[in-house]
Amino acid sequence: MPIFDINKTLSQTGDSLKQLSVLNPLTIRKKGRKAKAIFALALVCFFWGTTWLASKQGVKYMPALQLAGIRQFIGGSCYVAFFLIKGYQLPRGKEWITVLVLSLLNFLFSNGLNTWGIEYISAGLAAIIAAIFPLWLVVISLFESKSKISLQAIIGFLIGFAGVCIIFYEHLHDFLNSGFRLGIILSVIATWAWTFGTLYTKKQAVNFNPYFSLGLQMLISGFLLITFTGISGNSIPLAAISWQSWAAIGYLVIFGSIISFIAYLYALQNLSAEQTSIYAYINPVVAVLLGWLIFSEKLTAFIAVGGAVTLFGVYLINRAYKIPSLKIPEAEGI
């Protein structure tokens, strides 16, 4: 985007306001398809950013893995029912292997561990950690002899790593807290799972419908998590789940899964992939700001500057690798 000349600012104010008017929900029905797609993308950026706060609220009153399992099972059931009604066929034969592997990587480990980790760290910090998964792609590329790392990817990695160092500079003393350490470890492992899920998706993308597969992955992972927490005793009776946790689950399913996913698909169909991918950079910002406003989470210059630097590094890596997950929403969001 070109930088505005200060002498032209006043004359361009009207045009700027006109462009922002596409976000006005009171007039959205009168707008064209592109304006509606921009509004849909704005909904995605906001609601998927708020899912971190909803998860943070929900795990205060019930086991984290049980919450993740119930959320995934209900959301996955909605997705699967929709695609079955639309006439889509279930996977056949070896296609189920792909769906099963991705359900473990993308949801059971990635979303499940993210939900568990957020019990011990702030929603904003968890969102930023989740956003750095492209950095691991560069690390993996170092061990692949056939893979050539572009200069842009290396620069993106160095910038992203520098941003992470800035963020954690003032959190060094927090690592003395075992709960904080556990939260960070769980969140980092979750990003590894999503990274390997991204690579596996790239290799197997031609073998399945990615959007129908998401529903199946959620359904399978949700069932496994509910079963595991039940057998291990790390769960509470459904009747004992507080209304706060049910409200969080309801928000995650309705706004995080159904409404936002429909808006995401509409935006993806009417905007370029590069435009749509902006959600990946705005979601952590929404999580950090709302975490500060609602939960009084710490928001310092280190977090703000470090987060911005980290996301810029992630942006460079995404452009270098043309990551397929830009067309497939992140697990925490859905």
Please sum up the structure shown.
With 334 residues, the chain is an all-alpha fold. It has 13 helices and no strands. The model is unreliable at 1-26 (pLDDT under 50).
Strand content: under 5%
User: Globular, elongated, flat, extended or rod-shaped: what is the shape?
Assistant: globular
Q: Stretches where pLDDT falls below 50 for ≥5 residues?
A: 1-26
**pLDDT averaged residue by residue:** 82
Number of helices: 13
Structural class: mainly alpha
Q: Give the helices and strands as they follow along the chain.
A: HHHHHHHHHHHHH
Share of helix among residues? over 70%
Question: Largest beta sheet, briefly?
Answer: none
**Total number of β-strand segments?**
0
